[in-house]
Amino acid sequence: MKILLVDDEREEREGISWLIKKYKYPLEIVQAANGKEALQCIEKYKIDILFTDVKMPVMNGLELAKEVYKRWPEIKIIIYSAYGEFDYAKQALEANAVSYLLKPIEIEEFQKLMVSVIQAINDDNKKDELKQNAEIQNRKNLFYKIFNRAHIAADDREKVNQILFEQSNIGCKLLDVEFAENFFEEHEELFTHFLKMYMGKNVLYFNMYPNEAYLLVQEKKYLTGNQLEEQAEKLLMDLHKETHSEAVMIISDLIDNDAKLEEQLVKIHKIQSEIFGYDNQIIRVKSYYSETEYYASDVESAGKKLEQAFASMDLELIKKQNELLKKTILSLDKVSKLYLQNILYSIIKSLYDKSPKIKMEEVLASSERMFRAKNAKTMLEIYGESIDKMLDSLAVEKQDDSRIIHKIKNLIEKDYAKDISLNYVAENVNLTPAYVSYIFKKETGQTLVKYITDVKMMKAKVMLEEGTLKIVQIAKACGYENQSYFNKLFKNYYGITPKQLREKI
Question: Domain total for the chain?
Fold first, then answer.
């Protein structure tokens, strides 16, 4: 908190300064010799209290007070003077001064005034903080809704455009960060620490689910070039060192209006449904789509012919079409690793569905080797080994993915009171975590963690509406030992806290 002492007599300023220090008021003191200097100080520093004399050269105290109130109405103004005429006091009131003191200053009157003004500033700061927090929460509620639906309601578009251009006149970029496990419940503080370190304090952070968050980046230096991707790599690297976590981060194109935000969200959601595994990948929306579209036609045509051969169960035809697919891929000058991973895994999975004697662990092991390959040739060699092995044991039975999903959903419905993780589900359905994550997202259109959270939040709401359990008991009954995190997650999900919901009933 800063006080600006303005008087053309240095002794007067030092006298007031001495009183402030003597009575230990929590004020940082700035001094000026006239109104003009005072305005320069206010432009340079954030001043909370203006304590000014009346009679001064260049610009007197009353003129200064009127100008300050006009430009900075939040500053508390105290005028003191040797002149006690009514006209001066009247002009001080017109300048919105909180008090008009006469020289020599009465100590008791000075003390009462300073305590009162400092308290008033503290009260104003608390009101501003509450207002600011409410505005931040309203923004979060708005964006939680938008991020989930990839749609902006007509009534919200003006507000969204205002936020998008708040810090930059060229727009912003959106980052989606998804971890393999329930990362934020335990490591949110660490995440925000590294986020501020590498991307600054002005990034808007939205923790959507225990394993997912969106970041809205508006600083100009991150909107062009590769600096944002470089900082994102450092962020994921440090998080991995500290927590051994794995994540995938998707970086949008430049968003310069509400329609572009919707478009990018649709693309991000599509990428989320297509990628396999985490492995601390960073994916640019622009690169992902431009690289895959470049050669999608020829490769997908060859891939479809191969899958049609699977349906015929003609082993010679399958081998022939598989060789054609590999030649098509190798003939391309430009190959997207991500696209290649996804199409080859899709083919392996299609053949696995017809190969009951092959264990999923074997398929996943070869797939993970394939994903770590440094080039297309190596990737295709590993892919070829996997296909050949399945062709040797090919049969007519088919693994029913819907049965796996049904089993997972039943497990979550039964065990929602536990701290259900990806590893927990994988162990109970005898599959690897990577495959459970992929197949659940592929078959349902949403992540496993999101589905688990949806179930837990719906159960919590029913308990709050129908039962008599305390909120802390409901949190534990839904698998959340940390009640404050449960409260935060519930508010993000429904827009109100558990307590507020119960009070409405």
Answer: 4
Inter-axis angle of helices 483-494 and 448-466, nearest 10: 90
Helix axes 422-429, 433-444, angle to 10 degrees: 90
Residue 279 lies in a domain: no
**Residue found by looking up tokens 């290649």 in the block:** 340
| Residue given tokens 């968050």 in the structure block | 213
C-alpha to C-alpha distance for 342 and 329, rounded to whole angstroms = 13
How far apart CA 131 and CA 207 sit, in angstroms, is 21
pTM exceeds 0.85, yes or no: no
Residue 342 resides in a domain: yes
Q: Are strands 173-179 and 247-251 parallel, antiparallel or unpaired?
A: antiparallel
Residue 131 lies in a domain: no
> Which distant-in-sequence residues (6+ apart) come within 8 Å of 18 by Cβ?
none
Output the CA–CA distances (angstroms, integers) from residue 221 to 12, 171, 191, 202, 226, in the order listed.
48, 12, 21, 13, 10
Fill in the DSSP letter of residue 106.
P
| Burial (CB count within 10 angstroms: exposed 0-12, middle 13-18, buried 19+), residue 148 | middle
Omega of the bond prior to 104 within 30 degrees of 0, cis?
A: yes
Distance CA 196, CA 18 (A): 40
Beta strands across the sheet bearing 76-81:
28-32, 2-6, 49-53, 76-81, 99-102
Closest CA to 351 of 367, 375, 337: 367
The tens digit of pLDDT for each residue in 11-29 reads 999 999 999 999 999 999 9
Spans of the chain below 70 pLDDT: 83-95, 167-168, 274-277, 290-296, 312-313, 332-337, 354-357, 393-401
Query: What is the bridge-based pairing of β-strands 76-81 and 49-53?
Result: parallel
3-state helix, strand, coil in the chain (%, to 5): 65, 10, 25
Domain that holds residue 178: 150-274
Does one domain contain both 411 and 379?
no
